[in-house]
Amino acid sequence: MIASSKRAMLKGVIAGAIALTITAGSGAGALAADTVKVGLLRLTSHSPSIIAAGNGYFADEGIEVEFVPFQAAQPMAVAIASGDIDFGMTAISGGLVSLAQKGAVKVIGGALMETPDVEGQKILVSKAAHDGGVTTPADLAGQRFGVTTAGSSFHYMAHKIADGAGFDRADLRIVPLQKVPAVIAALKSGQIDAWSIVPNIADALTAGPEVVEIGKVADYIPGYQVTTVFTSTRNIENNRELVERFLAALAKGIDDYNAALVDKTMSEADTAALVKMVHEYIYNDQPLEKADPRIRAGAMRINPGARLNLESVEDQLAWFQSEKLVPADATIDELVDTSFVETD
């Protein structure tokens, strides 16, 4: 009995010591940071973080997630810098580059990428423009190309299409409309002539009479790292271990996403359950039976392990600088922390 009591006491002392060690090592700030806010756009490509939360991968890493919806990439970057959200997964924007140069944010991984084995983003024109002779990307010179904001991924794609099609970037009239729904409405009504967007949105638009597909983005930007994962520099410097745990959980969500929606190696029952999970945030203004095919159709490959195509990011930075959308002295080291994931 005495031996048993001693063992019980020893266990209590060890448990207490471990608890004190964890508390001392983490600090109150680190404990609070275990609850994180994640920015997302209501697109299928933002599903991996939703899946990671729904399947308990974040919980396994001791992270509780709250999702915060956005309608464009640049406001998400601002929210990261201000501390309103902790992690984001969207396109590199001019605002993101400028905030990175100021030491506020960092790209820490890759997400959506154009790959030859999966149907990617499409180049669209209004029916009016098509009837007027805009039937190939080379015909876009002089046309109005819709974007969310100047310096957005849409702006980058527009200029790379111009480069590849052989006409001057200045001959493409860029029309910022702030939000994706506004771009869609403008294209359908003929207020703009062209746009480029992920396949499920493109296919939904071309199914109607107002919009026509004339090309594919992958033909003009091979290996395009469309979206990236980013966080605040503050998180990296003060809570690196949290960033590592976040990426570990996200990587598992990416694996499930690719298996179910891209490679289609997951069973139909499990895929249906996953789509239902995603529907809580993506196309949740529609009933599941209508949203399900749209979610599936919008899937493009997400880089396993959040691997980053650094060469593509470097090209994007060079474009921002060539258009004077970011400071000329901005560097890739200011924009990207390559220590978290593998890079190409």
Q: Identify the strand order in the major beta sheet.
A: 2-1-3-10-4
Shape: globular
Number of domains: 2
What oligomeric state do these chains adopt?
single chain
CATH topology of the largest domain: the name is D-Maltodextrin-Binding Protein, domain 2
Could you tell me the radius of gyration in angstroms? 22 Å
CATH class of the largest domain: Alpha Beta
Structural overview:
The protein is an alpha/beta fold. It folds into 2 domains: 34-113 and 225-335, 3-Layer(aba) Sandwich (D-Maltodextrin-Binding Protein, domain 2), CATH 3.40.190; 122-219, D-Maltodextrin-Binding Protein, domain 2 (3-Layer(aba) Sandwich). Helix content is 48%, strand content 15%. It contains 15 helices and 10 strands. The strands form 3 sheets. Strands 2-1-3-10-4 form a 5-stranded mixed sheet, with helices on both faces. The protein starts with a helix and ends in a 9-residue tail after the last helix. Residues 1-33 have low confidence and may be disordered.
In brief:
The chain is of the alpha/beta class. It contains 15 helices and ten strands. It has two domains: 191 residues, D-Maltodextrin-Binding Protein, domain 2; 98 residues, Periplasmic binding protein-like II (D-Maltodextrin-Binding Protein, domain 2, 3-Layer(aba) Sandwich).
Considering the chains and any ligands shown, give keywords for the structure.
single chain; 344 residues; alpha/beta; D-Maltodextrin-Binding Protein, domain 2; 2 domains; five-stranded mixed sheet; 15 helices; 15% strand; globular
